[in-house]
User: Which sequence fits this backbone?
DNA sequence: GAATATGATTGCCC
DNA sequence: GGGCAATCATATTC
């Protein structure tokens, strides 16, 4: 049985007989019939239904005209009433479908992420958390700010695109909703449409559009993730430390050659001085120790150079201290200075003591100064040098190599032992 | 463009 | 968790 026949049956058998009045209005007598003729009435209704069923096959103008004709048709109120009745019967199935969907967890995740990244929600300097976290993990302050601003600029771009698209979608959604509501309102003249139905239709439209919005949010999240990974990758890029930073680190390393293991405080101090992070200082010392140990000969020249520097600095400091003590106090001063570093250590103290003992600095003696720290004189400063030349390295490392190697200071007795970190 | 230097990462050990 | 050793990846030098 097709729809038309079903409606016909419904109208003929169920409803029309009892609905001569619609909404209190008396039905006008059927056109061309006396109103008591059942066959004529059926024919009339069949005619209306036929027109309704074929209305979509016609052109817009024709359909418009036909619609107007139907609206003015004498049987229209009766038909409307029947449709109301049918609707009443089918209403239950609609009601069942009206339950609200629970919030989509994926959508919530996307919303949260966009909010956290500063893409959605109020502007807050876009992804400052991510940028700051990455910045904290990196060293070079100047370069950071460049990359940081670059990251933020790109994030702002994403944010703008996202908001523009979102607005477009919302506008399109509103326009479409208005359009559909107008259509429904117009249709409500010929068929019963409850406000709830309109509401439901609006809900369906909104759901459709929100699924499109979800795609937009997903794409935006992906873009942010890509940007972020690129930003972090850029940070992974190796950049040489500044000459000054390397100088400072080398100075510390060679002046503590006997025990090149800076304490936490020393690392922090060095990091501050070199404008790098503590972990970079740790990396640097780790690399330096290994590379030095692997090829002492190669580093000998460098060691001499820094030892000379340290010696000169220490000599200056010691001379100043002596002068000071002679001028100010008859007692031996406890000079806090131990070379160019204000760090708490005495690693290079004996260099200054050597200077104090009258060993004037000469280029040729510098090597000996270094060796005096690391062990007996090295036969040759080239490839001939092995770890055997350094007692601290003789047993496979400074420490063998977990605990700091103790150094017998020339200023102390053979039995006295001190570690760089102990001070 | 190859060789070398160097900062970072990873896996393991203690 | 700190350090070592190997390795990677990039920068610099020649």
Assistant:
């Amino acid at each position: 049985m097709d729809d038309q026949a079903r409606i016909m049956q419904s109208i003929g058998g169920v409803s029309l007989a009892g609905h001569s009045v619609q909404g209190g209005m008396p039905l006008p007598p059927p056109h061309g019939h006396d109103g008591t003729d059942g066959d004529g009435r059926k024919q009339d209704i069949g005619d209306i239904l036929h027109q309704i069923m074929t209305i979509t096959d016609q052109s817009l103008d024709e359909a418009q005209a036909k619609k107007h004709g139907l609206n003015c048709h004498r049987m229209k109120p009766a038909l409307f009433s029947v449709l109301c009745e049918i609707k009443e019967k089918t209403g239950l199935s609609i009601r069942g479908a009206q339950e609200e969907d629970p919030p989509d967890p994926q959508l919530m995740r996307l919303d949260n992420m966009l909010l956290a990244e500063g893409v959605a929600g109020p502007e807050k300097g876009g992804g400052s958390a991510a940028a700051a976290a990455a910045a904290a993990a990196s060293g070079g302050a100047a370069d950071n700010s460049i990359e940081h601003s670059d990251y933020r600029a790109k994030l702002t771009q994403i944010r703008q695109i996202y908001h523009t698209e979102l607005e477009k979608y919302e506008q399109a959604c509103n326009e479409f909703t208005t359009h559909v509501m107008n259509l429904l309102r117009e249709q409500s003249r010929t068929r019963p449409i409850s406000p709830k139905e309109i509401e439901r239709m609006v809900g369906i439209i909104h759901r459709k559009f929100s699924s499109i919005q979800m795609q937009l949010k997903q794409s935006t999240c992906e873009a942010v993730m890509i940007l972020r990974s690129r930003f972090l990758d850029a940070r992974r890029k190796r950049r040489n430390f500044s000459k000054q930073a390397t100088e400072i680190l080398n100075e510390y390393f060679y002046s503590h050659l006997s025990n090149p293991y800076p304490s936490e405080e020393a690392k922090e101090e060095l990091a501050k001085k070199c404008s790098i992070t503590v972990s970079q200082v740790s990396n640097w010392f780790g690399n330096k120790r290994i590379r030095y140990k692997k090829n002492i000969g190669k580093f000998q020249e460098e060691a001499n150079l820094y030892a000379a520097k340290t010696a000169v600095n220490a000599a200056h400091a010691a001379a100043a201290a002596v002068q000071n003590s002679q001028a100010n106090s008859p007692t031996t001063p406890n000079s806090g200075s131990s070379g160019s570093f204000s760090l708490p250590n005495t690693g290079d103290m004996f260099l200054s003591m050597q200077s104090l003992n009258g060993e004037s600095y000469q280029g040729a003696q510098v090597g000996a100064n270094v060796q005096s720290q690391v062990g007996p004189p090295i036969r040759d400063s080239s490839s001939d040098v092995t770890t055997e030349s350094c007692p601290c390295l003789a047993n496979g490392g400074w420490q063998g190599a977990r605990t700091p190697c103790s150094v017998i200071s020339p200023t102390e007795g053979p039995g006295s032992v001190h570690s760089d970190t102990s001070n």
Notes: The first helix of chain A runs from residue 3 to 15.
